[in-house]
Design a protein that fits this description.
42% of the residues lie in helices and 14% in strands. It is of the alpha/beta class. The protein has a single domain, classed as Rossmann fold, CATH 3.40.50. Strands 3-2-1-4-5-6-7 form a 7-stranded parallel β-sheet, with helices on both faces. α3 links the parallel β2 and β3. It is globular, with a radius of gyration of 18 Å.
Length: 265
């Protein structure tokens, strides 16, 4: 078979977004954006494998199972690169030997001025946000490319485009996620594996709790968002299903910004 991306299926548009019969591996799926997107993938018909650090939490698994699909938990702390290296194979075993979608949402943040930023925190942020994402994507590529079918969705950030303040490691990792997304797409799009990213703007989640707690900073940031509000995890359900589905068959190497118009301003 020629090394080209297969055409978008000529089916009714509603069917383009169906994920029935597919399997998704999700990191960072127990809270915030990751939780909303894991549930959205399930509602579109995909079975879900949740990579969790805390395997005693079953609320997301149970909510996903309530949609009628299969959902299993595989233990993995993204700080532990040894566990990350075996995660994809462990997920394959649990889910029956096929994974069609990799959703890389797990990440961490540390705030400190660059002159005082601890080296160990730099290494930890880079390992979690970038190296673990690469290792998982590499394992996914080895599985998907020979099968000529797959979707990889990475969570980037506004700091993929702008530098931020007091977050040198986070900004560096997310800038690299944007470039890695393009690099993998350049290699794998011809094999019918689409690699894309979603860049959230200012979203009311746990990772931004400190910003929202600062009244002046929260007000100033909100005033810069044309939509007039911070985003919520629910704002990512549609973009995620789109990028995971046949509807995005000819979309690859893109960083889709979901920010209420912030970058446009």
């Amino acid at each position: 078979m020629a090394d080209i991306c297969e055409p978008t299926p000529n089916v009714p548009v509603g069917q383009l977004f169906s994920l029935k019969g597919q399997v998704a591996l999700v990191t960072g799926g127990t809270r915030g954006i990751g939780e909303a997107c894991a549930l959205a993938l399930a509602q579109a018909g995909a079975d879900i494998c949740l990579a969790q650090r805390d395997v005693t939490r079953f609320n997301v698994r149970d909510a996903i199972r309530a949609t009628g699909v299969k959902c299993e938990i595989v233990p993995c702390d993204l700080v532990d690169l040894g566990a990350v290296r075996t995660l994809f194979e462990r997920a394959l075993e649990v889910m029956g030997g096929e994974i069609h979608i990799l959703f890389n949402c797990g990440g961490m943040q540390h705030r400190a001025p660059a002159t005082e930023f601890p080296e160990e925190k730099w290494d930890e942020v880079i390992d979690v946000n970038l190296k673990s994402l690469f290792l998982l994507s590499q394992a996914a590529g080895r599985h998907m490319v020979p099968r000529r079918r797959g979707k990889i969705i990475n969570i980037a950030s506004l700091t993929t485009f702008i530098g931020g303040v007091n977050i040198p490691a986070y900004a560096s990792s997310k800038g690299a996620v944007g470039q890695l997304t393009k690099a993998l797409s350049n290699e794998w799009a011809k094999h019918n594996v689409q690699v894309n990213a979603i860049a959230p703007g200012y979203i009311a989640t746990e990772i931004n709790a400190d910003l929202r707690a600062d009244g002046d900073q929260y007000r100033q940031l909100t005033e810069r968002i044309p939509a007039g509000r911070w985003g919520s995890p629910a704002d990512f359900a549609g973009p995620t299903v789109f990028l995971a589905s046949a509807a995005s068959q000819y979309v690859s190497g893109e960083v889709m910004v979901v920010d209420g118009g912030f970058l446009g301003r």
